[in-house]
Amino acid sequence: MAARGCALEAVPLPPEVRESLAELELELSEGDITQKGYEKKRAKLLARYIPLLQGVDPSLQAENRVSGPAQTSAVAPKQQKPRPANSRDERFRSDVHTEAVQAALAKYKERKMPMPSKRRSVLVHSSVETYTPPDTSSASEDEGSLRRPGRLTSTPLQSHSNIEPWLDRVIQGSSTSSSASSTSSHPGGRPAAAPSAAATATLTGPAAHAHIGVPVSSRVSSKIQQLLNTLKRPKRPPLKEFFVDDFEELLEVQQPDPNQPKPEGSQMVVLKGEPLAVGIPWPPSLLAALQRWGTTQPKAPCLTALDTAGKAVYTLTYGKLWSRSLKLAYTLLNKLTSKNEPLLNPGDRVALVFPNSDPVMFMVAFYGCLLAELVPVPIEVPLTRKDAGSQQVGFLLGSCGVTLALTTDACQKGLPKAQTGEVATFKGWPPLAWLVIDGKHLTKPPKDWHPQAQDAGAGTAYIEYKTSKEGSTVGVTVSHASLLAQCRALTQACGYSEAETLTNVLDFKRDAGLWHGVLTSVMNRMHVISIPYALMKVNPLSWIQKVCSYKARAALVKSRDMHWSLLAQRGQRDVSLSSLRMLIVADGANPWSISSCDAFLNVFQSRGLRPEVICPCATSPEALTVAIRRPPDLGGPPPRKAVLSMNGLSFGVIRVDTEEKLSVLTVQDVGQVLPGADVCVVKVEGAPYLCKTDEVGEICVHSSATGTAYYGLLGITKSVFETVPLTAGGAPVSERPFTRTGLLGFVGPDDLVFVVGKLDGLMVVGVRRHNADDVVATALAVEPMKFVYRGR
Description:
By secondary structure, the protein is an alpha/beta fold. It comes from Canis lupus familiaris.
């Protein structure tokens, strides 16, 4: 290579080659090209001159172009050790480049331009091991190998003294024209990229140390000029632009649509339900009613349980219910001790863990706790030790201070067990003692033992769990006074009488299934036929068959049960529903329930079902029964339907539309409010101002038959159970607080209540409100028999 360098001194290189060499050297010094790329491009420029001077065979030169890096490495006496990643590589150092940059920066420093902060110095280059070229347009396709670890080789120059004079002459001859030619041929100021070549010639640091008398301004390449132009601009925008302009671009304030519908009606007034009937000998408490029927009508049927085949497995009489409840109350108060002290005291909470297939033992446990002045907390049977839902139930049990759980022998055997054979501790649950309440495990009380007299007071009767949309579980407390008032109101609204038969398909542990099938039924000495959910899966017509066989006067179902009956009714000719005077639809507040009610009536009207028998109702865990439709013989107005514009509902406005359109929601009324209750509708957001008559809001109820609190949660109790509705002027509408139901709706003609959704399902998009129930209702409106139910 020394000989080759000597021979180049006498080579008359063309001006354009000298210009390209100078520009290539400048790019290498600036770091715009890697060492390997520089060697290939330089070898390409000199390839046609080197074989002529040294007598090298052109075929060998071609061979050199193919295996250039390997040949270069072979010439080196020994391979250098890899450089540390943080070491400074002298091959990328150039005093010419340094002088040019310093002169340019000094020039702009005189103008007092702001210097950027945290910017890496252009005078310091990283080593090849960590360097990534900023502009790969002028690099060869093999440059990627420089960035792969273990592929980098270094080839030191053998004789630097022979190359420096030639390089001096090349740079002197082309320095004045390199910058001009590069900017003139490329208007954008970028130098022309040299074509890639495979030939390799090595040129590194020492050649770049020549001091040359060239004007500094002519040595500023387009890359340096581009860097200086960047430095002239501030790194950050002005403070005003940063906080004002960008904010306006990113966060556009959505302006309300001037054409959106707005409520135009007058302010609504509080709707008052009919007064509770006077002159009727109501029992002083529910336990007093149980004692009366248990002692005077001991053989009257109270509850009949069915198995999964539809056969009656056991009928609980009022006498058995009274005696078993007394036995359980005595055992809880006198036979459970801890360190010679009673395990339970009046007012303590007790968990009831019973499956949906055992209503008899649940009823005994519930009334046994009431007789012992304990507070039952019905919960679901945990399936596994790590059941996700049981963790939330465990939080409820812990907050209620529950230490004892009641269950049956069969249910306990199915619970997960620990290694000791005891019931396992479920994740998130407090430590519990388990008591099996089958007859053989209880103690018969002495004849002179009687439970404490229970009058309807403010004390807590039971706690019903509620799961919110976030998955949290809270307990709604119901007082003895509220329990009695609920039973009285339902008795009057539904016209219940003694010895009536009620078919119950709902869960008897909570909601309407508990209020009708366990509480109100005992007050009126009714006979309840409990349909287990497992039987409904096997035979969806089972409840209709039991209505027919027991000549039931009332039935308690959901719209899903009516729909399943439609799918299974083909071929059933021997059923009759003529005995029904009330078919209570517990989820009548759901917008899609109307389709099930209409379809059920169309099919079974020919089998004795009368249109006025279908009675949708609206319920809430906090307010219990909100409203229920009543047959005409009980003074109820004719049922109504409302065809509402979906666009209006999305703005919280009621606009009646025609049923021919697709963008409408058809809802049915859920009847009138319960006797003795006051109802109003308040705005969903902000203070509880009364809504206008054509405005959708949250339904609120004031009644002695509502829940009283969320157990142990004083903050949200005040906002839900102690709401004071306000008039437009800010005055309270009543001195008594109202309870929020979580139901969205309005009051229509004939004082009928309409529900269009739930607060938990509310979805606000922009300024428009949608409800999760609307999604279901829309899906069911499109051939539900073919697409939704069969495929779900």
